UniProtKB/TrEMBL annotation:
Keywords: ATP-binding, Helicase, Hydrolase, Iron, Iron-sulfur, Isomerase, Metal-binding, Nucleotide-binding, Nucleus. One of its GO terms (biological process) is nucleobase-containing compound metabolic process. It holds the Pfam family Helicase_C_2. This is ATP-dependent DNA helicase. SMART domains: DEXDc, DEXDc2, HELICc2. Residues 6-424 form the Helicase ATP-binding domain. Belongs to the DEAD box helicase family. DEAH subfamily. DDX11/CHL1 sub-subfamily. One of its GO terms (cellular component) is nucleus. InterPro entries: ATP-dep_Helicase_C (IPR006555), DinG/Rad3-like (IPR045028), DNA/RNA_helicase_DEAH_CS (IPR002464), Helic_SF1/SF2_ATP-bd_DinG/Rad3 (IPR014013), Helicase-like_DEXD_c2 (IPR006554), Helicase_ATP-bd (IPR014001), P-loop_NTPase (IPR027417), RAD3-like_helicase_DEAD (IPR010614). Residues 67-81 have a biased composition (Polar residues). The lineage of its organism: Eukaryota, Viridiplantae, Streptophyta, Embryophyta, Tracheophyta. Residues 64-89, 163-198 are annotated as: Disordered.
Amino acid sequence: MADQSELKFPAFPFKPYSIQIDFMTALYQSLDRGGISMLESPTGTGKTLSIICSALQWLIDRKQKQNSETSDQKPNSGHQSGSDDEPDWMKNFVADKEIQVKEKKEIKKKRQGIRSMKVDNLFNRRREDEGFCEEKDQKNVKDKMDGGELNDDEFLVEEYESEEEGGLGCGKSKRKAGGVSVSSSSEEEDDGFDEEDEEEAPLKIYFCSRTHSQLTQFIKELRKTVFASQLKVVCLGSRKNFCINEEVLKLGNSTRINERCLELQKRKKDDVSKMKNLGSGGRIRRTKASSGCPMLRKQNLQTQFRSEIYQEGALDIEDLVRLGSRIGTCPYYGSRSMVPAADLVVLPYQSLLSKSSRESLGLNLKNSIVIIDEAHNLADSLISMYDSKITLSQLERVHSQLGRYFERFRNLLGPCNRRYIQTLMVLTQAFLKFLHLENSTCYADSHNHLQGVSGAKSADDCSVAINEFLFSLNIDNINLVKLLRYIKESNIVHKVSGYGDKAAGLYNGSTVRDGVDESNDEGTSLSGFQALADMLISLTNNDGDGRIIISRRPTCSGQEGGYLKYVMLTGEKIFSEVIDQSHAIVLAGGTLQPIEETRERLFPWLTPDQLRFFSCSHIVPSESILPIAVSRGPSGQSFDFSYSFRSSPIMVEELGLLLSNLVSVIPEGIVVFFSSFDYEGQVYDAWKASGILARIAKRKHVFREPRKNTDMEVVLKEYKNAIDASSDGDLKADSAPQKGAVLLAVVGGKISEGINFSDGMGRCILMVGLPYPSPSDIELIERVKHIEGLGDPTSSKPPEFYECYSGDVKAGFGILRNCKRRGKEYYENLCMKAVNQSIGRAIRHINDYAAILLVDARYAADSSKRSFSHPTNKLPQWIKGRLVSKTDNYGEVHRLLHQFFKYNRERTRVK
Ligand code: SF4
């Protein structure tokens, strides 16, 4: 590798700043060394471009080195194959061919579904991309409906033999392999869409981020460099993003789009099978041109799609969709097929971090580089991918369909099928019984095993460990692994749901199209079975890996609601699969602190000194940032936005007074962050009633973050227009009544997570209080309890206070108060990560400037007396170092702001 002291990054399109060189050098060295690194670079410092120019330079250098090593070795390689008399080119050819054949076999083996029979491999889980039916024989219900009447043969599940009945070692369908058990991969194989899959996979970099817009931004930056044309780049996304079949796309919902797409692939498969059967004289008629989706009919168009991408260089999702539409071929399958040959794969978190998604997409992480951007909440994002949930209405539907099916086919089913179907009915019945219990009845009273566990006599929500849950329902004797294998292999789900949908359609005289009941928000019958299968998989996890949440809350419309949810608590095992395979993993982000929490939750086996952490300072000069802890309002009232005081009329009014003063000193745009939509609404209404809102609106237009994302664009456009209309931002009170705008936003909402407010759009970010998450969130409290117990070998059993929580705010606070260690720290970190995300929306480039006001007395402290746990210690270094942590009164804040804006206005005018 290159001499580290001489690392250069020629692809950087501008002259890099020294912090950018530092960042690129740190990243390059991390990739060289391998292992895990965390690299922090504040927003607005060119982090993405630095990642591209360093990581891809490393890739090219590494490939060159590998090539030169290979060419050095080849003449003397003395490969075992072939005789010594054979010329080198023949030896190399044979060797390459052998590797190809070996890999081809491996790929094929994988595709045929010969996987480990570990339970978590039985299904593709939590797939946005891959529907449940991908692993199944998804019979097209519409086709079946064409006859107009129920046909027993179509829905009768084939005989199934289990260990007991057939002595086969494990449950097994009598159907021949490949007859109906179809994976998406094998479907592609039939289509011939996988030619490139069989090429030798080059060393590659996987870059993932959270949202599609972040991935689009990445591609945009990549195009500024030579790498866009030098390397093979492919961008992956979901079917919902890529689909160009209008008929499928109009289903709107990801699950339905997935299901429909896979049905279409299956139809093609069935068509091919039929054609085979029709072949006469022993000649098999087979075609690759047949496809249920017109966008996959012509394979040559897929080839054209790939070759145009290679010619055009890096394309983002929108480009790929445009290209696919122009050519008339599916961009989803087109981009997927390019993965094996790609140097750089750009994809969302979910696709890389979920094992089932990796397998579906055929991602091979072996010796690769994985860069995870926006990794500030990685541990929570990761574990949430392994949650599962089934609602009361889904359970009722699944249970009734199973019952109806059993009634209809009871006498035709073999003993094994009968037993497994009955087992499924017992399970769903038990789940339903649990959820149907009256709210006034504690389930602990009805289930002896759980006595004392809930501790909440009138709880709507409660949580329980897996084993306790199974014991309490008397289902602990069911072999879930075998049951899951039966579900996977027998095709029972499609038979039951297909029969159920058709029967319901005939009975109601309504149109049930392909198993899709448009009136049901919770999707198709298949979605219900998918949810059940996911829940059963979750129940096979280790007892301490997660908790079952039982919610019996009514729905908004007052109907009986409720759900069972498995909440995964540990991410370490999941992440270790990524770590084990990759050469290097880089977690990048604007603010990655606290890194210790991430280490403990995702890779606790690494000692702190084994984890490389690099943090660079901000690109902007210190005089461009003014962070102030504002502890008092204009009338001298101390600010306290804690849960108990934040709604008090005094606090709300003082905040209004503060803002009505600030609008006269801060130019252009001010973004105010509240802890929740409810609180923002409360404050807004109070200001409106008291006339404070009118005072603020005299100086600046007031906008509010909409709850619906679809309304966001309009609001942001109007906000921008209002600011643009205010000349140069001078605030001459008398001459210009309204200058700029105020945007009331919410922490955790769309604005705080992903909208950037550069220049005039965000001259000030005002954070109201400390946005701690609500302790009434039962999942949060479960995570807190789990993390509190991490790394404590003495606690085989959780402390008593752990066991008495039911979603009650007071009880939640009680649990938090009792946490002394990591749990408390985690809760505080959640709050400060949200603060950092929100205040990081401003200051996006070197000439930008903004004030950051942290409004609450709890932010204020004499810096010399600030304890380690003080919230401001969790601010990013570039803000912490410049924080004015103590002001005597509002007048001082006003004066500092006045000076700051005057200075920066003049400074930027001179430039
Ligand atoms: S094959 Fe492609 S275009 Fe056709 S339905 Fe599936 S995702 Fe849509």
